[in-house]
User: Fold this.
Amino acid sequence: MSPQYILHARTYGVAVSAGLNGSATLQDATGKGRSFYRPINEWILPEKNLLTGLIFQPPGGALPDGTQAGGPDAYVHIELVLAGPDGMPDTSVPALGEFHWTGGELIAPLPIPILTPCSTTDGMVGTRLWQEAEVVTKLEDADKESIVGLVNDLVEALASQDDSRLVQLLDYRSDEDAIARKHDPAAIKASLVKLSRNFSQPKPPPPLAWQSALFTPAANGMAWRVQRGWMKPAILFKDDEMAFLIEVFASRIDGQWVISRG
Assistant:
């Protein structure tokens, strides 16, 4: 049986963007804090895995309550751990990789990069992307246009509640999620359609122009994250009462760009 990996994160007092191998699993631009355990098998590479990210000042250098960011109570704790048979972290096994940072007077100036090696077990997770994706070290304009085209198509499918188009656009990602989490692919796709109903009321974002999009490589260039700007997800539907977002990572497979991760 392939191992199950979990990303554990706890933060407070500073803004953080972090994850595994360039993923955007942990996002907090405010510094008010995050705490979670999250399955992370879809981001496990066959070798040389890294906890990656950046610790930085929130806008204005202050927390939502007005106190100064990065004070002595600030901390960032991120670790990769194995799950036990019950799906919860196996406390009998040491963390496979961990990053710790605490605030105080003698801290290095922000921003601080996160780049911590992780060990992994010999068992393979089984996702296909790392065997099928091309390594793209630099995006050409045509690549950027193709990736942004996927984003705009996905926004349109969500806004119009076009279920068949939605499933088509997220087909590769859905199959990979099913492999990583040992779920039925059909059930994953059905849950996506159900989740998309949340996007029916908030206002959709305007079309994204590839010239203004922000592209960041992940997984050694086998996936590229697209954003509308720093800490601004590719897809964000919101109004005064609610907001729903989707992170988009795209990969080039057999010369074609597909949405591969989120």
In short: The radius of gyration is 19 Å. Residues 40 and 252 are 21 Å apart (CA to CA). The helical segments are 129-132, 141-160, 163-169, 171-181, 185-196. The first strand starts at residue 5 and ends at 12.
